[in-house]
Write a structure and sequence with these properties.
Strand order of the largest sheet: 34-35-36-37-38-39-40-41-42-43-44-45-46
Number of strands: 46
Number of domains: 3
Distance between the termini: 62 Å
Largest sheet: 13 strands, antiparallel
Radius of gyration: 27 Å
Structural class: mainly beta
Helix content: under 10%
């Protein structure tokens, strides 16, 4: 087998063809052919070809040339407006489709030759903002194999030479806000926004405003709500910066939704009709985005609490359905792993709440994940007053957190006569909250149960460890969330949970649960990046998570492992489907299509429609 590169000019005429020496291909394994060649004069693109004399008909070969832009011949090009993206792909088994990506996010696909799509960089529903961007193509064959082209770096420039060039920063947005449906006026939340004039012309005083918008995170129902606007009072020269303070009201929540996730967008709007006026973002300048949780005040509670009443049934494979008979919240509950430990056990729990909508959980929309901890995995406790409260002039003291089943708990701070603080727990919650002094940065906050088990958090509210009354400890290993993998606003995430037997020895035994996440390289939709991909315990057992492209949980797969006699066990999977966006029926109507759902299924809500257990038995849900 050998790899040849055919060099083509702008009219697709062959300029030259060069090839590498032939290589042998071992049976039963994939072989990568690597050949470097120099483009001859007049060549603007390359098309690889694999020569396979005598190759068996059962072999599978998949390859693709570099993605190329019709408006650019390669790296360093500058484009704007509408583009045509094209690629060449071939496979022995047949090409199923070719996807086109920008910075790893899919922007289109083609299923027939010629493989090309048109992309509008100024499309309001899917803009490609100004700046250097990596364009690439991903070819899929009919066997499910795929390969990715080398990325082509292209500069998108729609605002060049205009006044619509700016940098926007809002370092301290509110992580959560409260919407009160019964209030005459909503609480407002303060945000300081700094803008820098990156253009070559001054912005006139009072003619450019900083605006805030609430954007729904539902890709099929983009809702835009103007939240606040503040003009820049002074002229802003080229290269200068100015900070303005916005007071933002929360967006309304639909009936039946107790908690939702929105994006708070900060943009600039120009009033000058001679310059065209309008939004900077709509002209190609990148706005500043912040994920924010919107909680309904006095909402019917979510999650599992002993003072709620439930009606339950089994869903198969150890999964249980529970219905809150007071408010109609529909839940499923599954505990795939439990490892006894010294004093404290490591337990994995998953809980779905229908009354939530696109939560900030890394296990999928509306799905809460916890591993032994008190709070939802990786989510910090929310400590007030925070920066947004201070800007808005509020000094209310409270600490709020979402527990591992999705219930929100608020502790209200009270000041004693001597100036010390104590925290009043919500009714029915037996937890002792306190702020700790000392030099240990990982133990700034503590919550203790009546059995003396204490949950520790750092100064930013992230969980760090759990300790029982005898000193046995479970610890959480945290890392900073990589850029582009932030699904819900948390800046840190848990990658490992280590029980008591994994501490104190050198070398320490492997007593940890490892948590892997979908990365920017793995997932081509931002709704999936940063979500949990796999949990593996210290015995090698694993639980794999697959998602729809809108962030809904699609499938849980528990690796089969082996029996006590060494025989292999089949994997076990639970498959989830959801209703349409308006809740009128299933997003996937044909039961046969629900066996192995298409991750690209559009027009889905977060309301569960069906669960199929590992034997294929399906439970279907209906809603009033």
């Amino acid at each position: 087998m050998t790899l040849a590169i055919r060099w083509l000019d702008a009219d697709d005429n062959t300029v030259a063809t060069n090839s590498m020496p032939s290589v042998s291909v071992p049976a039963g394994q994939w072989t990568t052919l690597d050949f470097t060649d120099t483009a001859p004069a007049g060549a603007v693109k390359a098309s690889p070809r694999v020569w396979m004399p005598g190759i068996p008909s059962t072999s599978d070969v998949l390859y693709i040339d570099e993605a190329r832009l019709a408006t650019s011949s390669g790296d360093g090009g500058t484009v704007g407006g509408a583009l045509e993206l094209a690629a060449e792909a071939s496979a022995e088994a047949g090409v199923e489709r070719v996807e086109f990506t920008v910075d790893g996010v899919r922007v289109g696909e083609a299923t027939v030759e010629p493989y090309q799509v048109e992309v509008d960089t100024l499309d309001p529903a899917a803009p490609i903002y100004d700046g250097p961007r990596e364009f690439a193509a991903v070819a899929h064959d009919t066997f499910g194999q795929q390969t990715v082209s080398e990325p082509v770096t292209v500069v998108v420039d729609n605002t060049g030479g205009s006044m619509f060039q700016a940098s926007i920063d809002a370092p301290d947005p509110p992580p959560a806000v409260v919407f009160d449906p019964g209030a005459d006026q909503q609480h407002r939340y303060g945000v300081d926004v700094t803008v820098t004039n990156d253009s070559q012309q001054a912005w006139p005083a009072g003619e450019v405003s900083v605006v805030a918008r609430w954007l729904s995170t539902d890709p099929d129902q983009q809702v835009v709500i103007e939240a606040a606007a503040e003009p820049l009072a002074d002229q802003v020269p080229a290269g200068a910066s100015e900070t303005v303070r916005l007071l933002v009201e929360p967006p309304p929540l639909p009936d039946g939704v107790a908690r939702d996730r929105y994006t708070l967008e900060f943009d600039l709007v120009a009033d000058d009709p001679d310059a065209g006026g309008g939004s900077f973002a709509r002209r190609g300048n990148e706005p500043h985005h912040n994920p924010v949780i919107v909680q309904k005040a006095l909402a019917a509670e979510l999650g599992l609490e002993r003072y709620y009443q439930f009606d339950g049934e089994t869903l198969g494979g150890g999964m249980t359905h529970l219905l809150n008979v007071a408010n109609g919240n529909s839940l499923w509950r599954y505990s795939p792993f439990a490892s006894p430990g010294r004093g404290l056990s490591t337990v994995v729990d998953l809980t779905y709440n229908s009354g939530e909508q696109r939560s900030n959980s890394p296990a999928g929309n509306n799905v809460s994940l916890s591993i032994s901890g008190l709070t939802r995995l990786g989510a910090p406790i929310d400590i007030h007053p925070n920066k947004a409260d201070e800007i808005a002039g509020r000094a209310d003291r409270f600490v709020e957190f979402v527990d591992g089943t999705g219930t929100t708990h608020r502790f209200v701070g009270h000041q004693n006569d001597d100036g010390t603080l104590w925290w009043e727990p919500p009714p029915g919650v037996h937890l002792y909250l306190r702020s700790l002094g000392g030099d240990d940065p990982e133990r700034r906050w503590a919550l203790t149960r009546p059995d003396r088990v204490t949950f520790f958090y750092d100064a930013d509210g992230y969980p760090t460890s759990i300790q029982d009354g005898n000193g046995n400890r479970i610890s959480f290993v945290l890392e900073d969330v990589p850029p582009g993998e932030d699904p819900g606003g948390s800046k840190r995430r848990i990658t490992r949970v280590v029980d008591a037997a994994g501490h104190g020895l050198d070398p320490a035994p492997d007593r940890g649960y490892d948590i892997a996440y979908w990365s920017r390289a793995d997932a081509r939709k931002p709704q999936i990046r940063g979500k949990v991909r796999e949990i593996t315990d210290h015995e090698g057992r694993s639980l794999h998570f697959d998602y729809y492209e809108d962030g809904n949980l699609l499938r849980l797969t528990q690796a089969g492992g082996r029996t006590a006699t060494g025989e292999a066990l089949a994997d076990r999977s639970w498959v989830f489907t959801y209703t349409t966006a308006n809740g009128d029926g299933p997003a996937i109507g044909d039961p046969a299509d629900r066996v192995d759902p298409d991750p690209r299924t559009p027009n889905q809500s977060t309301l569960l429609y069906s669960v199929a257990d590992p034997r294929g038995a399906e439970t279907v849900f209906d809603y009033y």
